[in-house]
Amino acid sequence: MNNPGSDPSPPGKGLSPGMVEVRASQSDDVGRALEDAVRAVGGAADRHGTGIMITDVGGGRYVVRAHPAVPHGLVRELLT
Length: 80
Description:
The chain is of the alpha+beta class.
C-alpha cells in the first residue's frame, strides 16, 4: 500500500498479503492507512495463526505484517 486511501485489496487469488508497506505524508493519514493495512494483512495472519506487527521504519513509512512473535488476534506496534 503506497498511498493512504488506496485500495488495500490484494492482487491474486483472493488471498491477503502477509506484508504491506504504508507511506503516509501527513500525520492525519497515518491512522486510517494503518487500519486499512491491518485489515489487508488480517487474512494472512488468520491463515497462519499469527498476530500482526506494525513497525515504524521512519520517514512516514510503516511495515504491517503477519508475525509469529505476536499472538493470534493481537496487533503490536514496534517503534524504531
